[in-house]
Amino acid sequence: MKNKYLLFSAYSSFLAAVLHLGCIIFGAPWYRFFGAGERMATMAEAGELEPTLTTFVIVSALSTWGVFALSGAGVIRRLPFLKTVIFMVALVFIGRGVAFPFIMPLFPENSLTFWIVSSLICLTIGLCYALGGWQLHKQQANL
């Protein structure tokens, strides 16, 4: 039986990676819409490399996390350090989800709606990674 929490986590991570890739391709309007901040949008408009490199790192991380979630879900072969990575990714997403009050001052141009919606999305994905990791742990303990 496939781990539905980790399948959701994988698809969510891949979707987030594609949306971030869209920021690289479509530039400043996408950076603004997805809340990267005016500084990143302005640098993208000026053709600076920093937004592209920063966003590419995020795309790479999200894609890697998605692959680990697929592995934990049993869709692809088991990867090394699987449970550790799954729980660490859960912590990153949950941390982002609950830490928004501390991050908000760094991006004053983002609305409260942006922070609440994006934080709830991150929290949901993080909880799915955690629940999927727990299910994976229980499944392996029963083998």
Automatic annotation (TrEMBL):
Keywords: Membrane, Transmembrane, Transmembrane helix. The chain crosses the membrane at residues 12-33, 53-73, 85-107, 113-134. It comes from the Bacteria. This is Uncharacterized protein. It comes from Pseudoalteromonas luteoviolacea H33.
